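Good day; I would like, with your permission, to put a structural problem before you. What I wish to show you is a protein chain and, alongside it, a tokenised description of its three-dimensional fold. Thank you for your consideration; the sequence and its tokens are set out here:
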Amino acid sequence: MALVKMMMMMMMMIAIALLFTFSFSFSVAAEEALVSRIAFGSCANQSSPQPIWDAIVDFKPQVFIWLGDNIYGDIRRPFKLFGNERTIGPWKNVPRFVPSSEDEMQSKYNIAKTNRGYTRLRHIAKVIGTWDDHDYGLNDAGKEFKLKDTNQRLMLDFLDEPHGSPRRKQAGVYASYTFGPEGRRIKVILLDTRYHRDPLRSDGTILGDAQWTWLNKELNGPPSEITIIASSIQVVSNLSACTGPLFYMESWGRFPRERKRLFNLISNSKRDGVFFISGDVHFGEITRYDCATAYPLYDITSSGLTQAVEKVIPSFLHFVLRFLAWVTPTTMRVINSTCKHRSCTYGQPNFGAIQVNWDANPVKLRFEVRGVSGEAVNSVTTSLPELEASKKRKPDIKGKQQYCSLEVDLPWLVRHRLAILFTFSVAVVIVVQVGVLYMAISLMVKCLRKCKLD
């Protein structure tokens, strides 16, 4: 009997060892599987229809990256200029956005997670991500937001983050992942632009000291052929410099010292193949900056999966938005023949797509903004050598590199062209209205005089 028991114990130990070996091999194989298609997106209102998941699934991404506003967790009050609760205007007395309770946030995450299209995506792709303000808990909020720790737990639950993950113990949701075998590796760095961010207009910090230390370690760590830095807000573009004082958008450009620090960190790391992906602004575009590092830094912006600027106005007025996008000065946007619209912005629901042709010589990369039907509405094709510091680039025909002028450095009249156009248009409307009113009053006076004479 003792011999039989011993043999049974040995067989069990062998079985456990085989099971462990198989599990370990499967895990390594999953990490080292070649990745050539990555999709990403942002700004998905859980209460809105989300047909775009079909196009994302048809793209067959191996990885999908959330860039924030994965739900709209805060509560938005309507615009009210008068009344007891005024949300806009000089007499505003209540905030327009207020945070939801933990139960309300959880309910919204449940709606998002059980969406049929998103469920299909989760079955075919590794889903990772960061957050932005609306899933952080409050519009435009930063480090002062009191419910950030609770909402961090809820967001990580939504992403199925393991309970023992460092992300559940650290202050913020930043993280990094490496995919693919040696020689064909893709590193994804997810930034947290909310948890430690100082107030807007402060030119303070976005990432905070701990995250800056971590990012420095990540960029100077083991090499990868491609490094994607995911930021919930735009890094390269700073359109607020040209749309203010009419309206402002969040971006790294509004924290110029932080953006310069980020560019310097990338440059000093000597890391090749770095580019950004971003969301937040409710339209899609591709921008680049050629004078931060020894090679161009691209920023592919996809926003949003449901929320888009052209959805908030009637379709017959879409041409107005497209015209305004075209006349708004930009120094960073890539303008080419692949764009669906002349401005090379896209104001309908969209997602981002990255394709890597590892078999090409040299390796080719294609960045795309895709519409709800899966069609590319904006794209850029480049190669790995073009994203290497050793590659020598030719200046343009004027002897200057393109994409090197910051928006804030534009001449005043050019930079504020949109505000000048808006002011002129308002002035014309007022003059026309005053003229019509004057003519109407004049006719009435003439009619009254005529009636008296009769």
